[in-house]
From TrEMBL:
GO terms for cellular component: plasma membrane; proton-transporting ATP synthase complex. It comes from the Bacteria. Pfam families: ATP-synt. F-type ATPases have 2 components, CF(1) - the catalytic core - and CF(0) - the membrane proton channel. CF(1) has five subunits: alpha(3), beta(3), gamma(1), delta(1), epsilon(1). CF(0) has three main subunits: a, b and c. GO terms for molecular function: ATP binding; proton-transporting ATP synthase activity, rotational mechanism. It is found in: Cell membrane; Membrane. This is ATP synthase gamma chain. It comes from Candidatus Lloydbacteria bacterium CG22_combo_CG10-13_8_21_14_all_47_15. Belongs to the ATPase gamma chain family. Gene3D superfamilies: 3.40.1380.10, ATP synthase, gamma subunit, helix hairpin domain.
Length: 290
């Protein structure tokens, strides 16, 4: 058994760590509340906007607009991967990387990555993925304007035939203790990949009359919808990240508390053994003098 001094030193160290994790838990709780409010407030609009996009793709022929056309399975794939810029958030970043590796199915050479978040980007680079662009600042201050260069890169690559598909990989916020990595195809639109949350009712497939003509309207509408989808995905991922970090810090604080209690019991036991030994030595010395 370690000495009482060593145990006392460990108790002090773990108690200091617990103060840090407790403070990080409280900070994450505040950030999570803000991020959750932002994600939930925009969710109905983003879901319905993507549903409109999906309905348009079903009602119009692919040759009516190049962004609605299905490409042959010969080009490259563009993945927009949203992760975090920091760690200490449980399995949040690892789940995104695992989801991306599963989607690649070993065919890494066909995939280009646009990274939003440093952690996922660095991990994917280690696994051999080609990172063509990085937008870590969008995690700190997500805005629709920051999504525009990403959408422009995606649209240019798709219309020029460089990419046959553009896919968004993000973490969907479900609750404080639950989040789900998702993969959603942005281009071409596939109705079975459109994410619709339970609280947002699904409208029946609608018929659209497009004025003055489909090309001019869709040239404006489609980029705006794609910008909204990326912005919404970043908000969902931020809410999931802060929730995961809060839960991870809470678990760390609880574990530190349990470890401190266990060490205090060991410390008291060591002190009791030392006191008992000293009493025995005094009694033995007294008996020797009699």
């Amino acid at each position: 058994m370690a000495g009482a001094k060593d145990i006392k030193r460990r108790i002090k160290s773990i108690s200091s760590t617990r103060k840090i994790t407790k403070a990080m838990e409280m900070i994450s709780a505040v950030k999570m509340r803000r991020a959750t409010e932002s994600a939930l407030s925009i969710r109905p609009y983003a879901d319905r906007a993507m549903a409109v996009f999906s309905n348009l793709s079903l009602r119009l022929n692919g040759d009516e607009h190049p962004l609605l056309a299905t490409r042959h399975a010969s080009g490259k794939l563009l993945y927009i991967v949203i992760s975090a810029n920091r760690g200490l958030c449980g399995g949040f970043n690892a789940n995104i990387v695992r989801n991306m590796r599963d989607a690649a199915s070993g065919n890494v050479s066909r995939i280009d990555i646009v990274g939003i978040g440093n952690k996922g980007e660095r991990a994917l680079k280690k696994f051999g993925f080609n990172i063509i662009a990085s937008f870590p600042e969008m995690i700190h201050t997500p805005t629709v304007e920051r999504a525009r260069p990403i959408v422009k890169m995606m649209l240019d690559g798709f219309t020029n035939g460089v990419y046959e598909k553009a896919v968004l990989v993000f973490t969907d916020y479900i609750s404080t203790i639950s989040s789900l990595p998702r993969t959603q195809t942005l281009l071409p639109v596939e109705s079975d990949t459109v994410v619709m949350h339970p609280e947002v009712s699904k409208d029946a497939a609608a018929l659209y009359t497009i004025e003055p003509d489909p090309l001019s309207v869709l040239d404006t509408v489609i980029p705006r919808i794609l910008e909204m989808q990326i912005y919404h995905a970043v908000l969902e991922s931020r809410a999931s990240e802060e929730s995961s970090r809060m839960v991870a810090m809470k678990n760390a604080s609880d574990a530190a508390g349990d470890m401190t209690d266990s060490l205090r019991r060991s410390y008291n036991k060591a002190r009791q053994m030392k006191i008992t030994q000293e009493i025995s030595e005094i009694s033995a010395g007294r008996l020797a003098l009699e």
